[in-house]
Write a structure and sequence with these properties.
The chain has 271 residues and is of the alpha+beta class. It folds into 3 domains: 63 residues, no CATH class; 99 residues, no CATH class; 90 residues, 3-Layer(aba) Sandwich (Rossmann fold). It has a 3-stranded antiparallel beta sheet with strand order 4-3-5, with helices on one face. Strand 1 and strand 2 form a beta hairpin. Helix 7 crosses helix 8. The protein binds adenosine-5'-triphosphate and magnesium ion. Adenosine-5'-triphosphate binds next to strand 3, strand 4 and helix 6.
Length: 271
């Protein structure tokens, strides 16, 4: 009996952080004197009627309506307008100077008349893509088609300081993002959230400053298990690491999320 009571209380505490129990049909009734939530599951129609009548009549219960779990992540400030990509062009310019090459290879290139050469490569030419607030846009294309380059242009528009680096600067026209843009981005191997030896839960908590929101974010990305909460980044599988990175981005409460190679490491179902 004692053991069963313990199990019920543990479930009740977990219910604060995960809507699973309510989805399964539990009702939140009240808190015990020591502040533990009490959940009930009706086994008969009669029990269900009584629970519902209590929830309708009790002044405190009227406020929570039988729901314990409340999303605390909240809504982000929606983008005020479109992201405008019009006539966007990107040319990568690189200089090949054979002087820096080993002599034998230099001789080969010199034999072909190449000494010092500026190579210009069109990657994006007159690209037009309007992106509306609330939209999810996926860019697909062959390797080398310019997907990462396009994302760099968007990231550069939202983080102007990055434009000091030519990679993030268009060659013609600009990407225009709304004034209230709050971007979080992930370009693998280029810009990624950094994890140390802290647990994943601590990492997210450090960013949001609220334990319930931290758990909520981990649930959102499918790391909804205490085993993951207390895991360290290096203890996760490659796909789980991707999800931890996504959680880290969400913890910044962005209204614009730019992710390259989004599902590359995930099996198709998880993706
Ligand atoms: N910093 C750079 N300097 C010069 N050329 C570059 C640079 N970055 C990319 N490129 C070239 O621009 C083209 C587009 O590259 P990009 O990385 O955007 O392709 P991608 O569509 O993301 O490809 P993948 O699917 O392989 O990631 C490629 O041909 C690449 O060689
Ligand atoms: Mg790429």
């Amino acid at each position: 009996m004692k053991k069963r009571k313990h199990i019920v209380e543990t479930i009740a505490m977990m219910a604060k952080y995960n809507p699973f129990f309510e989805k399964a049909g539990f009702y939140y009734m009240w808190d015990t004197g020591s502040g533990r939530p009490v959940l009930m599951y009706p086994l008969t129609d009669e029990a269900k009627k009584r629970i519902e009548s209590f929830l309708a009549k009790d002044p405190v219960a009227q406020k929570h309506g039988g729901k314990l779990y409340m999303s605390r992540y909240g809504r982000v400030n929606k983008l005020q307008g479109n992201i405008v990509i019009e006539g966007l062009t990107k040319i990568y310019t690189s200089v090949l100077d054979v002087k820096q090459m080993p002599t034998k290879l230099r001789e080969v290139l010199l034999a072909f008349g190449v000494e010092k050469r500026v190579i210009e490569k069109y990657v994006l030419r007159d690209v037009n893509i309007p992106i509306k607030p609330g939209e999810v846009v996926a860019v697909v294309g062959a390797s080398g088609a310019g997907k990462t380059t396009l994302l760099r242009m968007i990231v550069g528009a939202a983080k102007r300081e990055l434009q000091a680096d030519a990679r993030y600067r268009p060659s013609n026209r600009e990407v225009v993002v709304p004034q209230n843009t709050r971007i979080a981005y992930l370009l693998p191997g280029e810009c990624e959230p950094t994890f140390g030896s802290e647990t994943i839960l601590e990492h997210i908590y450090a960013k949001v400053g609220d334990e319930a929101i931290a758990v909520e974010i981990l649930n959102m990305v499918g790391l909804s298990d205490a085993v993951f909460y207390r895991a360290r980044f290096h203890e996760l599988s490659t796909g789980q690491r991707e999800r931890a990175k996504l959680a880290s981005l969400l913890a910044e409460k962005p209204n614009l999320l730019v992710i390259d190679e989004f599902t590359a490491h995930l099996d198709s179902l998880t993706a």
